[in-house]
Design a protein that fits this description.
By secondary structure, the protein is an alpha+beta fold. It has 8 helices and 20 strands. A hairpin with a 3-residue loop joins strand 6 and strand 7. Helix 4 crosses helix 5. The two termini are 29 Å apart.
Length: 336
């Protein structure tokens, strides 16, 4: 029998620390619980799957069912001399998966160290950092289809991965619950360390190995990003915008130093944090909300911020950048 809690506080279940309530809440460790919810028609009403709560901003109390996956497990299901395929339960903490891979000398996800949240959200968001995206390692995703009541599987190409995007945020939004993620990693020594910050950090060491790369990434993130346990935040609040090379030339006329990364022959990606800083928001505090003083891409809760305070600051940033640079910033955080 499933045990659903009523009028449940989500303050400790979102890294912004916003004090909102869910009308119903269920934590599960066995995916059979999803079958029971289906039989009891729980999915016929509004529901939301909440992982680590590290990429979400609740704007109001949630008038529906919050599903909180806590199924655990990392297992090797295929292995040869060059690669290994891991099946990982959706409730596993993402950074523990990276730690497991590094400890076992499996290459491919070390650059994604210290990203908060659970692995169930990783394919939905196509998490990425320092030149790597999880789509580069995902082979399959298992999910519970809340329409059919069956466990189904998609391969990598069917997930329609894009920049912080996937089929799970579009066609399958509010229709599925991720249950397992399969990632294929290399057993052959291989690093992706040309990304600027990592390259600079690794200049401090003489020998490079997986643990040293992971430690370098952790040091970079700890130095630039606030710990949600100390100051409420959801990491990068905005996506890095992709713009035309023509618009880049126009920006370079005023800011020759603008950083950018080539996407293709026509487009480049510009760091949103640079744009926000150039507009004078870095370190700004407005009421109880603010912009982090070391990384302008991060909006923070200085103690008792409401979601409205954070949204008002976000809107002000978006409007200023649109006006000054002609760039429309998009939020990376899931606003509920």
């Amino acid at each position: 029998m499933v045990s659903i809690q009523k009028n449940f506080s989500l303050k400790n279940y979102n890294t912004f620390g916003i004090n909102v309530f869910a009308s119903s809440f269920i934590e599960y460790t066995n995916i059979n619980t999803l079958n029971e919810l289906f039989i009891n028609e729980a999915f016929n009403s509004i529901f939301f799957v909440l992982g680590g709560g590290s990429n979400v901003l609740f704007t109001n109390n949630f008038n529906g069912l919050i599903i909180y996956p806590q199924n655990k497990g990392i297992e090797i299901i295929e292995e040869n001399n060059e690669t290994v395929l891991l099946r990982i339960a959706a409730g596993e903490e993402w950074d523990k998966v990276v730690e497991y891979a590094v400890n076992n000398l499996f290459y491919g996800i070390e650059n994604l160290s210290l990203i908060p949240g659970n692995i169930g959200a990783a394919p939905i968001q196509n998490i990425g950092a320092y030149g790597i995206e999880i789509k580069d390692s995902i082979k399959y995703v298992d999910f519970f289809n809340t329409i059919s009541g069956k466990i189904e599987q998609l391969n990598n190409s069917d997930c329609k991965f894009g920049y912080r995007d996937s089929i799970f945020k579009n066609e399958l939004k509010n229709k599925i619950v991720v249950t397992n993620v399969y990632i294929q990693l290399s057993k052959v020594e291989n690093y992706h360390i040309d990304y600027g910050n990592i390259k600079d950090e690794l200049k401090k060491v003489e020998v490079i190995n997986l643990k040293i790369v992971r430690d370098a990434v952790i040091n970079i993130r700890k130095n630039k990003l606030p710990d949600p346990a100390i100051i409420g935040n959801a990491g990068s609040f905005f996506k890095n915008p992709i713009i035309s090379k023509q618009l880049l030339k126009e920006i370079q006329a005023d800011f020759a130093e603008v950083p950018y990364y080539d996407i293709d022959v026509c487009q480049v990606k510009i760091p949103a944090g640079w744009l926000i800083e150039k507009c004078g928001f870095k370190g700004m505090k407005k009421g109880n909300a603010g912009v982090h003083d070391k990384q302008a891409l991060v909006l923070v809760n200085h103690g008792n911020a409401t979601s409205n305070e954070i949204l008002e600051l976000s809107d002000e940033i978006i409007a200023k950048i649109q006006n000054r640079f002609g760039i429309s910033l998009e939020t990376e955080v899931n606003i509920i």
